[in-house]
Amino acid sequence: MINSNKFILNSILVFSFLSLAIAYFIQYKLGHKPCNLCLIERIPYISALILISLIFILNKFQKVFAGILLVLFIFGAVVSVYHVGIEQGFFSESLVCDLGTSSENLSSKELLKQLKSKTAVSCKDVTFRFLGLSLATINTVISILLSGIMIKFIKNYGKN
Predict the structure, then answer these.
(1) Any domain includes 98
(2) Is residue 100 a part of any domain in this protein?
């Protein structure tokens, strides 16, 4: 693996770690509970930590792992665009936003208790903004950029 590829992978590894650290800081220290789409949007970053570590440990299958990572970052971009669309009112909330909050087989008391506790965060509610942008908006841009970087990485793989 040439040095520029190693630099790119190291950069994505560090960036993924920092992104997850910031997300968990916002969740656990600042008290902003994520919605289900927010949790799904973390999957590419967690996967990046695992796959890039495997690239360095195994020193095999770099292009395969990079391809999987590309698909995951594209998936992250699509989910983030959808999430922003829900926040902006372009799309309705889906069943994904209601995971774990099904009201089936609940008594009226249990349903009232669940509504009062507001355990689930709606995907359309923006509970945290940075520079006026929702985290889903920021993640959309980042996921698209990381997808582009991975496309370039795969396209240039093995070239000097």
Answers:
(1) no
(2) no
